[in-house]
Amino acid sequence: MSMTRVIAAVAGLVMLASIASAQAALGDVAKKEETRRKDVKTPAKVPPSPSGVQPKDGDKAATDEPKKDEAYWKGRIAKARADLDRNQTFADALQSRINALTTDFAARSDPAQRAQIGNDRNKALAELDRLKKEITANTKAIADIQDEARKAGIPAGWVR
User: Fold this and answer.
1) Residue 9: inside a domain, yes or no?
2) 124-151: b or e for each residue (b if 16 or more CB lie within 10 Å)?
3) Which of 58, 76, 126, 148 is least crowded, fewest Cβ atoms below 10 Å from its Cβ?
């Protein structure tokens, strides 16, 4: 009977270790994507206007502001919602990684391994805190866009 318990315990630890390594891989992919996005540069030159005529100085202020039609509002709210969704998904994945690291930390007896796992867990907790702040900012941005559209008299369907 006790041999069965030992085998079950070992199988459980092996399964937890595999989950932790899978979560670590997900975290690495997310960090690489975040780094890649920070490195993307915006175009330095403004493309010529469709008519081929460059605006005069007096007309420049009028052409700098985008046309606020249905596509503008739908695109703006869609981008804000996509940012929120991406951050929420990343936060959920990060929480899973934190849970796996916590379990792995408790299962380790080697102080060096526990220290490394503890450092990884602390980094993940800091990143999760940053993400929660971004999620709050994204939620506020969506509310601000909807409020701005309401004040501008935009149909509600454009920002749904």
Assistant:
1) yes
2) beebbeebeebbeebeebbeebbeebee
3) 58
The verdict on residue 22 lying in a domain is: yes
pLDDT (tens digit, 0 to 9) for every residue of the chain, 160 residues total? 577 777 777 777 767 666 666 665 667 777 777 777 777 666 555 555 555 555 555 555 555 666 788 888 889 999 999 999 999 999 999 999 999 999 999 998 899 999 999 999 999 999 999 999 999 999 999 999 999 988 988 888 888 8
Domain count, the chain: 1
pTM: predicted TM-score of the whole model, two decimal places: 0.55
Which of 133, 71, 65, 131 has its CA nearest to residue 98? 131
Q: What are the CA-CA distances from residue 60 to residues 24, 43, 68 (Å)?
A: 50, 19, 17
Task: Name the one residue in this structure whose structure tokens are 């007309």.
Answer: 59
Q: Which two tokens stand for residue 44?
A: 């330095």
DSSP assignment letter at 1? -
